[in-house]
Design a protein that fits this description.
Radius of gyration: 16 Å
Oligomer: single chain
Number of domains: 1
């Protein structure tokens, strides 16, 4: 479900932008998409508004971006620690792979096989601006609300 995995999208995008580019200034030109190709590993802290016991939890992240045809594939694995005993949390590994293709607009790609978000599936796309590659996902929940 997207609501549980949405942090992974943003963590992956921010993680890659930080390690590839080290931040961006207001005057920065757009990097080419291939500047993000490679493998990136690290860790960070995630915040949950729903889990009081694990309001903050450590996550390890591995992101690999590889060229595929005229687009690229993004594969990431997140190791979450947000269940069990807070002093010795259980590890939960989640892996996701998505392939993105150009849409005919500069610096925008959409996920291959992107589905209709009203059916409970995520519609995902990538935007490259300056030194940041951001993966977005949009999904409409059964009650009509949406997750972004």
């Amino acid at each position: 479900m997207l609501a549980r995995d949405k942090i992974g999208f943003y963590v992956a995008a921010i993680f890659v932008a930080f390690f590839v580019c080290g931040g961006a200034s207001a005057q920065t030109k757009d990097l080419p998409g291939n500047a993000f190709f490679g493998e990136w590993t690290g860790s960070g802290v995630a915040q949950s508004e729903e889990n009081i016991t694990f309001q903050y939890s450590q996550r390890d992240l591995n992101v690999t971006i590889t060229p595929v045809g005229s687009g690229f594939s993004v594969a990431w694995t997140t190791v979450q620690r947000q269940k069990g005993d807070p002093k010795q949390p259980l590890e939960n590994r989640k892996a996701t792979t998505m392939t993105f293709v150009p849409v005919g607009r500069p610096n925008v790609w959409r996920a291959m096989g992107a589905l209709d978000p009203i059916g409970g599936n995520a519609y995902s796309w990538v935007k490259l601006k300056g030194q940041t590659l951001t993966i977005n996902a949009f999904q409409i929940e059964p009650d009509g609300t949406y997750e972004m």
